[in-house]
Amino acid sequence: MRCGLIHQVAGCVLGCLLSAGILSDAAASSLQVSPIQFTYAPTDQSQALYLQNTGTEPLEAQVRVMRWSQANGRDVLEKAEDLVASPAIVRVAPGERQVVRLARKKPLETSQEKSYRLLVDELPRKMPAERSGLEVLMRYSIPVFVEPNRAQAAASPAAAQQTDLSRVRASVVRDADGKAALQVRNEGPSHLRISFASLADAAGARTWLAQGLVGYVLPGQQMRWPLAIPYPLPSGHTLKARFNDDRESRPVPLAEPGS
Question: Does the predicted TM-score (pTM) go above 0.85?
Answer without folding.
Answer: no
